[in-house]
Amino acid sequence: MNIHGFITLTLLDYPEHLAASIFLGGCNLRCPFCQNGNLVLSPENEPSISEEEVLAFLKKRSGILEGVCISGGEPTLYRELPDFISKIKALGYLVKLDTNGTNPEMLRFLYENHLLDYIAMDIKTQPEQYAKVSGLQPDAAGTQKLLQNINLSKEYIMSCGIDYEFRTTVVAELHRDEDFKELGKWLSGCRRYYLQPYRESEHILASMRNPDVCFHAPDTESLHRYIEILKKTIPNVELRGKDIK
């Protein structure tokens, strides 16, 4: 496991639980607004933390911390992920997985082997715009397979019984009303859906490639309008983010 980040205490990453968060390197998408561009483009240049060090800390905090959030990058790219989670579960922790949904087979395996308690799946945008917003070439080999896998993951998560959320980072330059109308159809009936306004950071993927690229969060009026569009088919839609009213 290529672990490149370890937050030893978070009140935010795992809903309603005191948790630690683990960040793995590497991703098969290239979302230009990604805040962890360093983990996507060049994880080999980031400081690493050994699996043994992480597990030793979790063992020591067992009974104090309740859960572990595994994020990235994209964790499901690692074939050894089930074994790693098994070790965490053996210490008595709940496990939340953050994923882009491109590996439905891994999600199914993890859930059916009782290795997951919560899934947070990032929804980049509506299906017709997905390749563009996730930084993929629509006609490139493998792109359509990835998009099909994302839909399979969405369907599986909604039907398998696990606790879950879908979430979208909303970028003023990339999202419009029509996108949320289509998202409302695609995600109709989902358990909970969060909109997260874009936040600037030093590792935005597009800015690492081109310093002149700049994104912005939508204004509050637009965010609330998107919420009202979505609530026609998804009752539980909320804004998640600092200073959002």
UniProtKB/TrEMBL annotation:
NCBIfam families attached to this UniProt entry: NrdG2
Which N-terminal stretch is annotated as signal sequence? none
User: Per its UniProt record, what CDD domains does this chain match?
Assistant: Radical_SAM
The species this protein belongs to is: Faecalicatena fissicatena
Q: Which PANTHER family match?
A: GLYCYL-RADICAL ENZYME ACTIVATING ENZYME MJ1227-RELATED, RADICAL SAM DOMAIN PROTEIN
Metal-binding as UniProt keyword: yes
Stretches assigned to the Radical SAM core domain: 12-236
Q: Which UniProt keywords apply?
A: Iron, Iron-sulfur, Metal-binding, S-adenosyl-L-methionine
Top-level taxon of the source organism: Bacteria
Question: Which named protein is this?
Answer: Anaerobic ribonucleoside-triphosphate reductase activating protein
- Asked if the Swiss-Prot or TrEMBL record annotates the protein with the keyword Membrane, the reply is no
Sorted alphabetically, which InterPro entries does this protein's record hold?
A: Aldolase_TIM (IPR013785), NrdG2 (IPR012840), Radical_SAM_PqqE_MftC-like (IPR050377), rSAM (IPR007197), rSAM_sf (IPR058240)
